[in-house]
Amino acid sequence: MTGFVLSGCAAGPDYHPPVITAPSAFMSGAAMATRTSPQMGDQAYWWTRFGDPLLTELVGTALTQNLDIAQAAARLSQAQAGLRAAGAALLPSLAASGSAAAARQSLETPLGRFAGNAPGFDRDNALYDAGLSAAWEIDLFGGLRRGQEAARADYQASQAGAAATRLAVAAGTADTYLTIRGLQARIGIAERQVETQRRLVEMVRLQYEKGVAAELQLRQTEGALAQVEASLPVLRSGLDAALNALDILLGVQPGTYRSALSDVRPIPAAPAIGEMGTPQQLLRRRPDLIVAERRLAASNARIGVAVSEYYPKLSLSALLGGSATSAGNVFTGSATQAQGALGLRWRLFDFGRVDAQVAAARGVNAEALATYRLAVLRASEDVESAFSALLNREEQVATLARGEAALTRAQAASLAAYRGGAVSLIEVLDADGRLLATRDARAQAQTEAARAAVASFRALGGGWEAPTADRNSDPTP
Q1: Helix crossing, 425-459 with 351-419: angle to 10°?
Q2: pLDDT, tens digit, for every residue of 212-258?
Q3: CA-to-CA dists, residue 275 to 42, 329, 462, angstroms
């Protein structure tokens, strides 16, 4: 059994946050330093840095209307009520009671037959009671204090969980919006590719009918057209799914914001990221890590709750009131009645079950510790993966931009050569197709780079900061 000291110490182990060994910097930190801006401060309202007013408006709407956030707020209210209940358990309880009863004695019962023959017997009688009762469990061994400690940690975990939900919703809204803009851009490029391929097919068909082109060339161009046309339904289906997903994030029926997003706009560029901090600072900034750490603290406190069952429970109770057969005499001195009691409850012959409860509490604590350590590792993975995706996608965008510039010049050169009779129209249209394909790849890379920036903001903890106040202070408003 875990020992205790009566001078205010509680049963069970005191909580000490786990020591997490983390590197001094992120692996991609040096590369990311070239695109960060320390003057940007914390990450609050990071979605505004994409420079898209509609994106800013949609994220604001999601943070107001999203139903996941509403659920998180409800869970926070439940945890706050649990904390208040745990605090109230440490205080004496006081209750007022009163009753008024009327009864009529039957004369057909043995008692009635006997009493009915007595002089002055009154079959009708009344009884009035009023009183105050008080009870207090004396928390000698800290079981109730450990329960309050667990409830406080649960409340703080719910606070962090609400912040994590808001961050997830903001990131999900931004990511979905960027996906929509990327798909719209790709659909536009695919439609231009279809037009180019149709012109190419018509040109080859005319040449085939004149005997200039072979049937193989015609069938190849027709197959290329079908391939491009087949990509459009896939892109449009993806766009519909993204639009519906955005509506759900905004807490409305699918289709509500479709018209507001019908105008095609450029894909927002990935913004600079503010000061990244260190992996150790990430532990205090990411709300999901704070949730895991606070749940670990709560499980540690519940070990103390279980250990306290080894020791006796003392309680005081008292009753003061009056009882009379007449309502007017209830509060007279002759009707006064009082009672006081000192209670003792000790599971002296139930230690086998207490042992099992303590072992279960320690098992939950061990699981919470492993969960927290795993969450830390995954948080580092999120950051490193997001940084890598952002850097590599931006490099891909730059490479494709150079390729697009070269193919634009090639297109212009082929068009000039065609006008001079040096090349055929087929070569011009082929140059157009190559250019459009490169533009499609660049649109994909731009979209993924912007989405990687969103993932980076989310992985770094967004704009939520851990409270600087002592976590052992009572956060109840």
Answers
A1: 150
A2: 778 887 888 888 889 889 989 999 999 999 999 999 999 999 999 99
A3: 7, 77, 12
Contact 404, 440 (CB under 8 A): no
Q: Which CATH number fits domain 29-93+126-459: 3.90.190.10, 1.10.10.10, 3.20.20.70, 1.20.1600.10?
A: 1.20.1600.10
What residues does 324 pair with on adjacent strands? 128
Domain residue spans in the chain?
A: 29-93+126-459
Give pLDDT tens digits for 177-217.
999 999 999 999 999 889 888 888 888 888 888 887 788 87
Question: DSSP 3-state assignment of 130?
Answer: strand
Sign of CA dihedral 345, 5, 153, 380: negative
The pTM score is 0.84
Give exposure, 411-432, as e/b (b: 16+ Cβ within 10 Å): beebbeebeeeebbbbebbbbb
Q: List all residues 6 or more positions away from 279 whose beta carbon is below 8 Å from its beta carbon.
A: 22, 23, 24, 25, 26, 380, 383
Q: At what angle do helices 143-209 and 67-88 cross, to 10 degrees?
A: 170
CA within 13 Å, CB half, 122: 6
Amino acid, single-letter form, for residue 151 = A
User: What value, to the nearest 5°, has the Cα angle with vertex 308 and ends 307 and 314?
Assistant: 165
175 close to 242: Cβ distance less than 8 angstroms: no
Instruction: Give the pLDDT band of residue 39 (cuts 50, 70, 90).
Output: low
The predicted-structure confidence for 373-410, as pLDDT tens digits, reads as follows 999 999 999 999 999 999 999 999 999 999 999 999 99
